[in-house]
Write a structure and sequence with these properties.
The chain has helices at 3-16, 19-44, 58-61, 65-89, 92-111, 118-141, 146-176, 181-185, 203-227. By secondary structure, the chain is mainly alpha-helical. The two termini are 32 Å apart. Helix 5 runs antiparallel to helix 6 (118-141). It is 74% helix and 0% strand. It is built from 9 helices and no strands. The radius of gyration is 20 Å and the shape is elongated.
C-alpha cells in the first residue's frame, strides 16, 4: 500500500469522525494508557512473582499471572473500541490495516510472547518488527506531526541501542568466564538474571543500562498513546 494513499485514507477517516466517534477513541486511548500502568503495578505488588525484577521490560512484567491477564484484557478492550470506529468510518485500507495490526499484535504479544521456544521465538521476532512498523503507519493514518513520530522512533532507537549495549556487556563476561548452567538456562530472559550480570566488573553498568532500556521502552509507547489523537477533533 503506497504511503501517500495510506495517508490520504487516514485523512478521509478523520474527516468522517463525529463527536461520539472521538469519545470512543479517547476512551480507547485511556484504556490503552492504563494497560501501561496497571499490569506493571500489579507485577511490583508481587501478584505474579515473589521477587519482582527491577528494572524490567514490559514483556517481562506481563509474562504470566495477574499482570498478563490485566494487560491482555485492557489491550484487547481498547482495540475493540478503536475497531468499532474504524469499521464505521474507515475505508477498506484503514479497515484492512487495523485488523492486520491487531492480528500481528495478538501473535507477537499473546500467542508467541518473548521467551517462547523454537519456532514461536522466531515468530515473535518477525512479528515484533512488523508490529513496530505498524505503529509508524498508525501514527501516519492519524496525522500525528512528524516531530512526535521522530520522538517515537528516537525512543525506539534508544531502546535498541541499550539492548545491544547490555547484550555486549554480558557477552564480554561470558567470553572470559564460561557461564554455568544458570547462565545458559534462559537465553531470552532479562540480562539482569544471567549469571554474568553479577560479575563486579559490569554489575552497576548493566543495571543502569537496563534502567535506561526500561525508561526508553515505556517512553516509546507513552509517546505513541499520548499523541495519536492530537489531530482528531470530530464533526459537531
Amino acid at each position: 500500500m503506497p504511503l501517500a494513499a495510506f495517508a490520504a485514507s487516514g485523512r478521509v477517516f478523520r474527516e468522517r469522525l463525529c463527536a461520539s466517534d472521538v469519545r470512543r477513541l479517547r476512551i480507547a486511548q485511556a484504556i490503552w494508557q492504563s494497560s501501561m500502568v496497571v499490569p506493571p503495578a500489579l507485577y511490583y505488588l508481587k501478584t505474579s512473582d515473589p521477587t519482582p525484577l527491577f528494572p524490567a521490560t514490559i514483556s517481562w512484567t506481563i509474562r504470566e499471572g495477574v499482570p498478563r491477564l490485566a494487560h491482555h484484557s485492557l489491550w484487547l478492550a481498547a482495540w475493540c473500541l478503536c475497531l468499532s470506529v474504524v469499521q464505521r468510518r474507515g475505508d477498506w485500507r484503514g479497515r484492512a490495516f487495523s485488523w492486520q495490526m491487531l492480528a500481528t499484535g495478538v501473535v507477537c504479544v499473546i500467542l508467541c510472547p518473548l521467551g517462547s521456544d523454537g519456532l514461536r521465538e522466531r515468530i515473535h521476532t518477525w512479528t515484533a518488527a512488523a508490529y513496530m512498523m505498524d505503529h509508524h503507519l498508525f501514527l501516519r493514518a492519524f496525522g500525528v506531526p512528524s516531530h512526535w513520530v521522530a520522538v517515537f522512533w528516537g525512543c525506539f532507537g534508544a531502546f535498541a541501542g541499550g539492548t545491544l549495549a547490555s547484550k555486549a556487556l554480558v557477552a564480554s563476561v561470558e567470553a572470559r568466564d564460561a557461564p554455568g548452567p544458570q547462565g545458559k538456562a534462559d537465553e531470552h530472559g532479562p540480562y539482569l538474571l544471567r549469571e554474568a550480570a553479577q560479575h563486579p566488573s559490569i554489575r552497576e553498568r548493566l543495571w543502569r543500562l537496563e534502567l535506561f532500556r526500561m525508561f526508553s521502552e515505556n517512553g516509546m509507547f507513552f509517546i505513541f498513546l499520548s499523541t495519536f489523537l492530537c489531530r482528531v477533533t470530530g464533526r459537531r
